[in-house]
Amino acid sequence: MSNDGLARFNENAIIPWNINDTQLSPAQFVSNIPWLDWTTTGKEGDVKYKVSSVEKFAIWYSEQAESLIKNENGYIWNGSYWKQVKPSEVINNLNVSIISITDRLSVSQTKKRELQRDVKEYLVGLGRTFDDSIKTKYVAFKNATLTLETGMLDKPDKNQNIIGGFDFEVSDDDRLPETWIKYVKYMFGNNDRIFWAWLGYGFYNDMRWWQGALFLLDPVGGTGKTYLVSKIAKALFGEERVGAFKLKNLQAGNARFETARFIGKAIMVDDDATKVRFKEDDVFKAVTGGGLSPVERKGIDGTDYMITAKIIANVNEMPIFNSGGAITRRLHIIKTIAPMADKAEIDKRNRMFPEDELQEEIPLLIPYAVEMFQRAMAEDWKIEDDISEDMVATDPFDLWHKTLESGEFKAHDLYNSYTDFFESLNIGEDAKPMTLTAWGRKMSNWHKKIKHRSGVMYQL
């Protein structure tokens, strides 16, 4: 009886008790309960209650419990937004509520089972017309709904069908979080506004601005950027909406498990993505581009999921990506300018950015971050001293591909040519050419594949 659904049901509903528990007459007692009737039995005229309409009970229950079932999901209105839960939670709430009500009224077991069956079907029926799509124009908080385009805060409205939200309040105070602004400026210089805009971007359930990831490059190391990112992200989004992942796992066999970490998150942080080498970047592109990504969670069948969480990766040295416009456009790199955070430096920062002021300004962070994102979009902000072009390695496949001549060639001969070329580059002891399967997929994107009796050939 402690979860959201039952708590709100018991708070909202007039749960009927036996007549001995009320000063009302039986007629008065049932007058406001459309599904309840009464009669008298025996010589002493004992009051007996009965459920007069299962349909009216179902309507009454759905209005009080504010829950429904759609497809594989259950939804419960918690007063701020529709919370997605397992269907079993909605059904359990229903069963417990019906048992509680019918026991109080001494209703028969047969009627109790009938109610449990038919009201469940009613809740499923409600779900058929329920719009559970992602609402990109709104963000729900505990005390208000933020309209992203206007910055207006309105009372939560369950008819907007906003799925999910943040379980803390947002402030309508128009002051600026001055101490936080100074702190971020101290860490990132003139690119502080890009950092703020990226955080504001995290409140949007789409990839309308930049695709890709924000890399916080700290060549010196130990400047305290990881501490700041964790502190400000949790202050903005709450701990439940900030996740951790490893950039290196967004490739090969680990990808479908790593992407599962992104579900339900606004910001994903890799606290050290230094020296990651990307050989297969298709999952990275999908995750950072708003496309469907393979997701597999323990005990749940694998599926494809559209990820909209924004990535922040802390690095002392940039990961290695192969060349290509699609990758270069996804690398957004800002450098830290703060000195290394030794004891003297930490003491200095504590004086410059007092913890009590930071805590006091937390409610001011959300409006500021969202405003900075909107300005970035409207004014087409750019990163100062952008070094993304210099961070992309040349793909050995692309170099080899440029050496090919026109004609029809056996796949086996072409692959051997590719591996020989790869070895000639002397990239490093740990570097290995693509597998034949991966190479074949890439070739098929470029050239016509022809199957002969003698084997597979490509027309170049």
The beta-strand count equals 20
The CATH class of the largest domain is identified as Alpha Beta
Main beta sheet: 5 strands, parallel
The CATH homologous superfamily of the largest domain: P-loop containing nucleotide triphosphate hydrolases
Shape, per Cα inertia axes: flat
Fraction in beta strands = 15-25%
Give the helix proportion (percent range): 25-40%
Q: Which residue ranges are poorly predicted, with pLDDT under 50 across at least 5 consecutive positions?
A: 15-19
Given the structure, what is the number of helices? 17
- Number of separate domains: 4
CATH architecture of the largest domain: 3-Layer(aba) Sandwich
Query: What structural class is derived from the secondary structure elements?
Result: alpha/beta
Whole-angstrom Rg: 30 Å
Could you name the CATH topology of the largest domain? Answer: Rossmann fold
- Strands in their spatial order, largest beta sheet: 10-11-14-9-16
User: For the residues shown, what is the average pLDDT?
Assistant: 85
Q: Ends: how far apart?
A: 68 Å
GO molecular function: ATP binding
Pfam family, one: DUF5906
Keywords: ATP-binding, Nucleotide-binding
InterPro entries: Helicase_SF3_DNA-vir, NrS-1_pol-like_helicase, P-loop_NTPase
What do you see in this structure?
- It comes from Weissella coleopterorum.
- Keywords: ATP-binding, Nucleotide-binding.
- This is SF3 helicase domain-containing protein.
- InterPro entries: Helicase_SF3_DNA-vir, NrS-1_pol-like_helicase, P-loop_NTPase.
- It is a single chain.
- The chain is α/β, with parallel strands linked by helices.
- The chain folds into four domains: about 5-130, no CATH class; about 135-170, no CATH class; about 180-390, Rossmann fold (3-Layer(aba) Sandwich); about 395-460.
- The protein is built from 17 helices and 20 strands.
- The chain has a five-stranded parallel β-sheet, with helices on one face. A three-stranded antiparallel β-sheet has the order 3-4-5. A three-stranded antiparallel β-sheet has the order 6-7-8, with no helix packed on it.
- Helix 6 crosses helix 7 and helix 7 (about 190-200) crosses helix 14 (about 365-380).
- The longest helix is centred in the N-terminal third of the chain and has 20 residues, at about 110-130.
